[in-house]
Amino acid sequence: MSIHSARLSALRDELQRRGLDGFVVPLTDEHMSEYVGGYAQRLAWLTGFEGSAGSAVVLAGEAAIFTDGRYTIQVREQVSGDDWAYVGVPATSVAAWLADHAPAGGRIGYDPWLHTRVWVTEVEAALAGTGAVLVPVETNPIDAIWTDQPAPSPARLAVQDERHAGVGSAAKRAEIGDWLAARDADAVVLAALDSIAWTLNIRGGDVDHTPVALAYAIVHADGATDLFVAPEKLTEAVRQHLGNSVRLHPRDGFAAALGGFAGRTVVADPNGAVAAIFDALEAGGARVLPLRDPVILAKAIKNPVEVAGHRAASARDGVALTRFLHWVATAAQDGSQTELSAAARLLAFRQETGLLLDTSFSTISATGAHGAIPHYHVTAESDARIEPGQLFLIDSGGQYADGTTDVTRVMPIGAPTAEMRDRFTRVLKGHIAIATAIFPDGTMGGQIDAFARRPLWEAGLDFAHGTGHGIGAYLAVHEGPQRIAAPNYPGGQALEPLREGMLLSNEPGYYKAGEYGIRIENLVRIERRAIAGGDPDRIMLGFETLTFAPIERDLIDPALLTPAELSWLNAYHAKVTEIIGPQLDGEVKAWLLGKCSPVG
Questions:
Q1: Going by DSSP bridges, is the β-strand pair 107-110/133-136 parallel, antiparallel, or unpaired?
Q2: Among the residues of 253-338, which ranges form H helices?
Q3: Which residues cross the membrane (predicted)?
Q4: Selection from 442, 467, 569, 562 nearest residue 521 by Cα
Q5: Which residues fall within 8 angstroms of residue 42, CB to CB, at 6 or more apart?
Q6: Is the distance from CB of 316 to CB of 308 less than 8 angstroms?
Q7: Residue 69's pLDDT band (boundaries 50, 70, 90)?
């Protein structure tokens, strides 16, 4: 029996002891985070799945793991089909699957600290006709059998200086207070870790790649704030930074504090605050307003200091990436390098900037067939040699105090095939379509997603992920609420209006299972555009590209590009030369100038 089969068996035994007929295992933590600390990696521990999005259901006689199109290949490589059924989302859901598979009269457990009230309501509705019921557990049954479960991180908090944040914490809290007053509310619970970090201008080290700390905050209408965080995380500098208007409490006192709002109105985000928070507030007599966390939109619209910081971080990061791409072109063409050695080399180039604080996510270093797995994670076991005849895809980013980066490039190893060049050029056409898009203020990301797909659709092709995600300012590499994705994309973020000042990625791709993957990713900022002859009362928006590194010209078929697309490409490469070129010299600079010379 494999280790993961044994763990599944142990969980079933634990469920039986608790009188439960099933249990739902999400990939998140008490803050509904996308990336979580080691202590919260329950799905990976149970199943072996190492992706960043997924969930599972365990019943007495069957089990299912749920992933989206990004992980169709990966989940089958990492999770045994003998133990688990593979279920795709959004084609189905945990709620729909339970409605068909939960035993009549069964008791299905869930951890109320790991699911939202919205999720609970959806599943309860799905189970209504089956006789099965959802049962909240007081303690997570996986924790009971995970004998070597890591402890939460002890990392200390750090101050995010206002020269990077642009706006002081007191001003941010005052705005939240005004927002509450306008809604006749007394307080708002901030459960999202990046919302807390942004509001208080602090950063942490509790989650790999995301500079946040495990904490909760309650902001009151007068701007005063209660911060619940482990005392050992607080340095004297952080205490002085927070000041007297931020009252400090141990993190484990948060649940009890929620019971102290009897007769008062408290805002909690139905999509970001877990069900246990709503339960505790209501049990204590509070009136709960289910509204979106007010920090989410404010955080997404970057202020001028944050934008300037991102430009500086992108230019710095672009130099490191360009040096790496030159290394691939000159040192990784003979089969002597592997995915792991390439990722290590790129990390070294970033570290040589002297300002890298972390990578913004686990680098996707993927050659050949691994490139067809959009969120592939290289390990010592999966590490593959980069060999001639392949495409090598590198998706990576850096965390700097002044900005978070995320960029993808593809390099041919040896001569690319005509098909590779065709597919790459179609992806490039989609990338250019987004980069040059002009749209009215209020347009949603779901309305322009098809721009990136049309060149692929015309060849009977597509890709199974969103075209763009928001990005934080030395915070989460994936940040809402904005997104460029199909309108039915999970989570509904594709229906968020795009607003001036938001940052997004532009990353269409194409993946041929078992052979290669292609993705071209830059970050962009939404800016206002003046249109000659347009309606003077209509605000029009477009994208400013912020990422600069060469796009591989040997993979481009110029015959497939229109004159306007060629003009964009050549102008982009001229800008790469202008920004990156002066920071390079010798062989690397000469290589860059060659790669950025006009195409067509």
A1: parallel
A2: 254-257, 275-283, 294-300, 304-331
A3: none
A4: 467
A5: 25, 27, 140, 142, 143, 146
A6: no
A7: confident
Domain 3-145 matching CATH 1.20.210.10: the answer reads no
Hey, where are the domains in the chain?
Answer: 3-145, 158-299, 301-588
- Does domain 158-299 sit in CATH 3.40.350.10? yes
CA-closest candidate to residue 212, choices 453, 30, 37? 37
pLDDT (tens digit per residue) in 345-354? 999 999 999 9
Say whether 301-588 and 158-299 share the same fold: no
* Structural contact between residues 8 and 83, judged by C-beta atoms closer than 8 angstroms: yes
For residue 90, say if its preceding peptide bond is cis, omega within 30 degrees of 0.
yes
| pLDDT tens-digit map of 358-387 | 999 999 999 999 999 998 989 999 999 999
Q: Hunting for tokens 């939404």 — which residue is that?
A: 526
Q: CA–CA separation, 329 vs 408, rounded Å?
A: 16
CB 289 within 8 A of CB 265: yes
What is the CATH architecture of 301-588? Alpha-Beta Complex (3.90)
The percentage of the chain sitting over the pLDDT mark of 70, rounded to a whole number, equals 99
**Among 366, 355, 321, 379, which residue's Cα sits nearest to residue 44?**
379
**Residues 583/451, Cβ–Cβ less than 8 Å:** no
The residue behind tokens 């996510």 is 361
User: What order of strands is seen across the sheet that includes strand 265-268?
Assistant: 246-249, 225-229, 215-220, 187-190, 265-268, 287-290
pLDDT for residue 490: 60
Give the DSSP H or E segment for 345: helix 339-351
